[in-house]
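Section 3.1 - Work completed
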Amino acid sequence: MMTLRPVRAHVAACRLLFIVAIVLALPACKEQSGKALRFGLSNMPVSLDPRFATDAASSRINRLLYQRLVDFDAHYQPVPSLASWEPLSATHYRFHIKRPSYFSDGRELTAVDVKASYDFVLDPRNASPLRISLANIQRIQTPDKETIDFYLARADALFPGRLGLGILPQALIAQQHPFNRHPVGSGPFEFIAWPQEGRLRLRRRRDGQLITFFAMHDPTVRVLKLLRGEIDMLENDIPPELISYLRQQHDIQVMSTPGSNFAYLGFNMKDPVVGELVVRRAIAHALNRRAIIKYVMGGAGRLAVSLLPPDHWASDPALQPSTYDPDAARALLSEAGYGRANPVHISYKTSSDPFRLRLATIIQQQLADVGIDVELKSYDWSTFYGDIKAGRFQMFSLMWVGIKLPDIYRYVFHSTSVPPAGANRGRFDSPEVDRLIDEAEAGTTLAEQARRYRKLQAILQRQLPYVPLWYEDHVFVARRNISAYHIAKDGNYDGLVNVESISEK
């Protein structure tokens, strides 16, 4: 087994020496405004159009720009946001807009805008990746400007929780407005400018507070700019040794909380190697995830067994994570006919983020210890994510963020959810899983659905279309003058709604 503790210590020392060496030489951010609060990102959003956004950065920033009919509480139960609701029958839900709301261009948000936003997603010609989770909607009517009626093809006890789409203005939808680069929403922030690829400016509508997002792929660069006062705050994507270093700085504050974001290894199920269950089982046994969490992640994570976090109402508390057993991994590979004369070769794609690349390198070495030869390929985020969506991979590592409803299983694992219809990027095809997903969604109560989803999770654990890794903690780092920021369970940026800057002493 590889030794992780010395590796971590060596990397930490190198990082800190690097900080000392270049902190004075690093070019300053062009924006030095005393009015704008500056937030460092690892990646810019791909799209500011909520009808098409699927990456984490886009989803988090779109939450600031657009309102949704429904949101979720701390227990992953749907709660009213823009609208309250009442079930008029098992297949008829009526939503009432609770209060007057206005888009950033001054138009009032009405039921017509809600209908237009959902009608666009439901139209298959528009190829929205969100359509699969809303396909049960048969038609939408608007009796008046505050009321929206959703008629379903079949009963769905989870239906209110599916309505998390950001609402766009109907008039601009009709004009084919380019929301992806020029968003117009009714959320707590409004779009100001996206003057260059690495800089995005928003304004908080209640008080005019400006927020500038800067994208810097290298976490060391983000930390250096924070130390120099060129940015004010960061959230996540920071290596543990840099977090430890930041905790020692008197002018920096560090907060953390357990998270629900699910990290995993994904596979191309049509591939002749990783498409074999025995190979995926060997991979699961070869990974010493506890050691990675302890020594590489600084303890900032929990072992994962399924997409749903352990405190979710539909998660299965009886499921146990795969055991670390390299001997079992070698035996499985031998049983499948692999060995020195016929080694397993796997291409493993990941992003070029230094911490993600380091995790991938450790996984590569752990797999090598059981006889799996891994070729590691790292790419910038947009190239990497594009390859994953297009199915151009053999094995990859990624993370699901913001999971609230168990309908994620249809979106990710149902055979009808191959992109662009969903996110079954590995082309997983199991009639048994399809049937269990259909049966779970047909449950008329949450308790009944929970029982069926737990059975589904057990089947997926045996078939391993994903190898679960961990749920990562969320870490927020800021200068001492930043206050009133709250870290969300799913790592969203809603804390910016109330964040303040006070005079530094």
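Second construct:
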Amino acid sequence: MTDKLHIAHFTNTYKPNVNGVVRSVSTFREALTRMGNLVFIFGQDADDYEDTEPFVFRYPAIGIPGFDYSASVPASNFVNKLLPSLKLDVIHSNHPNLIGTAAANKAKDLDLPLVFTFHTNYVEYGQHYVPFGKAFVEDIIVDALVRYIRRCQHVVTPSDSIKQYLEKYGGITERVTTVPTGIDPAPFQQADGGPVREKYGWGQDRVLISIGRLTKEKNWGTLLSAVGLVARDHSNVRLAILGDGPQRKELEEQTRSLGIAKNVVFTGLVPFENVPNYLKAADLFCFASVTETQGLVTMEAMAAGLPVVAVDAPGTHDEITHGQQGLLTENDSQALAQAIDQVLQDESLYRRLKAGATEKAKSLDMMIQAKKMVDVYEQAIEDKKANRFVEVRDDRVKAN
């Protein structure tokens, strides 16, 4: 296929929200647009936010008490009238519900191929917010996910770990492709961390950095406990946490309980264009989350030349090979602390991991990943013409 594509991305969360899905959608949009394709975004309404990019259309949304997100209401006469005029080639859904449901319905109504990216490990997230056993939650979530996937021509997973999960529990072995989001390496390579170090008075301190929403599923408590152990022997160690969320006050209290309040900086949300400068200001990227579907912030850290110490978990270990770009540990604060201490103490190890991280980042360029996504779209278009959908095996594994 030589013609440039008209692509509609449907997402429950887009700018001004700051999270992995928004980063993925916006990054692919930028890369696909550079290739000459036309990408339309259909996201949630955002009060008091003015879009600076073209072709972003909003569904109504309702704020959720206690959360910094809103629930989309996938009903819009304007969108209904607009879609046929866009001459779309493919609809790309980033969620299996709400606006994702609208995406599937529109694909059916307009006879268009539907591609779905499985961004989020909904089972792991459900464990933190749904008061039922894991097996019960997993069966319900996976069954709903499978019903949605049956409506698609292709499924995209951001890492091989998630692809393997879908194969085992979803029974999906065909028309599923791993396409990581990718990064634009230039801002990270060109960043200047000097002003950030000066702002916080870090001087000759050894600075650890981590990025993410301040929520339970990100496992911040384990990281803070690890830093508490490291700080016993390294008084000049600092931790910068970029992000915000409902657990912030609890985590700030934990730093006081551990006696490391002076060692930890909660920066709050940092505009993405300034994140590379923060990464460049640091010496080591540390990460404890066990719910990632891809190592996006880890990839960005490597692009800034940072070695990584992280809990060995899906998403993270898809990008980090132990001993090459960083060290991976058990989900345990003592193990994480020992690995951090090892990297800080062993200068030759530090230099080797730093070089490995920098080299690995070269393969994660967003333009490389966007070309893979175009291949997915073209296959989905051909499958739709032949009336082929994603197939699900009947012998898929049920949760225990």
